[in-house]
Amino acid sequence: MTKTALAHDICVCGAGPAGLAAALAVAAKGLAVTVLGQALPGAATTAAEPDTRTTAILGDGVTLLENISVWGALAGVSAPIAAIRVIDDRGGLLTAPEVLFQAGELDLPAFGYNVPNSALRAALLAAAERHPRITLVATEGVVQIVAGADNVTLKTTENTSFATRLLIAADGRSSLAPRAAGIAMRTWTYDQFAIAASFGHSAAHDGISTELHRRPGPLTTVPLPDGADGARSGLVWVETPDEARRLMALDDEAFGGVLQRRLKGLLGDLRGVGRRATFPLGGAMATSVASHRIVLAGEAGHVLPPIGAQGLNLGLRDAAAIADAVAGCADGDPGGPDVMGTYARARASDLVSREIGIDLLNRSLLVDFLPVQAMRGLGLHALANSRTLRRAAMRAGLRGPGEVPTLMRRLAKTAGDVR
Ligand SMILES: Cc1cc2nc3c(=O)[nH]c(=O)nc-3n(C[C@H](O)[C@H](O)[C@H](O)COP(=O)(O)OP(=O)(O)OC[C@H]3O[C@@H](n4cnc5c(N)ncnc54)[C@H](O)[C@@H]3O)c2cc1C
Description:
This protein is an alpha+beta fold. The chain has a domain at 3-81 and 117-187 and 282-369 and 403-408: FAD/NAD(P)-binding domain (3-Layer(bba) Sandwich), CATH 3.50.50. It contains ten helices and 20 strands. It starts with a strand and ends in a 21-residue tail after the last helix. The structure holds flavin-adenine dinucleotide (FAD).
């Protein structure tokens, strides 16, 4: 028999980073919110494997984490990203010059910080657990979402049913919410896998993240704080699926040897390769992020390949925009037309521009068509030679177009501040 829980004003489905950030952002605006999520305290089963990834949280994302009282737990385990070096390593006819984007050119100490995903989720969860306006409900999963005129109803595997006036769907790339809201998703795949890990190295990274643009995809190293054995970096290595499988089958030492050769000595001798995991790369974009009392946040609404480190940064901007929409709601209904319209307008141009930019950049590595490579090379030449262009590109990478959500604003000028 279905148990019916109390009606709620605002529910979040999904306790990943986007969902927890959205819950904390809404609660920071003084509103109560219920989170239905997997692997929460009290759950029958916990998350299977620890996340090997690190996430580069850029610009205003750090400010949001500060404003929702999460950053304090992360500052010590995160490393500042002071510069991003892009190296054309396609080995084709037209090799572009190296481009160095330095946060100092925007008068910033850093573009943002690289945070281990496991620490990020733990810090978000701890902040949500201690927040008086957040209720966490552990479930094996939400299995049904039905949007009605006055409520959205969610049913869990435990056969409990929840009614909410606003559903913030943050249940990842297989979310049930777009269909329930009548929102179409465009999806696509790339013939690429990403290998994510962290590793130690003998040369200092100096706060520089390096992106090697290779034919199968980017190989990116991102600074981490020093470990007991010295300097460490996070790794996102994009390869063809076959090559990724081959690399995954190698033992740590052999894998480190191949990586060291690919990095051409940039980080010295490698050691201490941590646990590796692979992620098949694809993309998805909702045709709208708000409909029928449901708003989409994080990968429930958009999935992008890791080049440019935009994925969760977009999810954090979703979280901050939802908080503004519900806090400013004119008609008193958190799932009403006012909130739906405000959120959809706030997110539209950011999402469209990121989708186009990131997809083009990723695909431009995959094709050998000479005019495409000439365009890519010209773009990198222009960036290498023009401070104005570099500054414009850096600003665009750090912040979405349009108004900055209130929880992403700060008064003092520090790492999260982009002018
Ligand atoms: C290799 C790699 C590197 C990346 N690096 C970066 C980076 O440097 N910077 C950046 O900004 N982004 C990066 N990204 C993207 C970033 O990792 C994702 O955007 C982010 O993890 C998505 O968070 P999310 O909360 O939307 O989804 P998820 O992390 O997938 O969370 C979804 C949550 O919903 C829960 N859930 C799912 N189904 C249900 C259900 N039916 N009922 C209840 N709960 C459910 C899941 O348990 C999970 O907790 C990277 C991605 C990859 C693959």
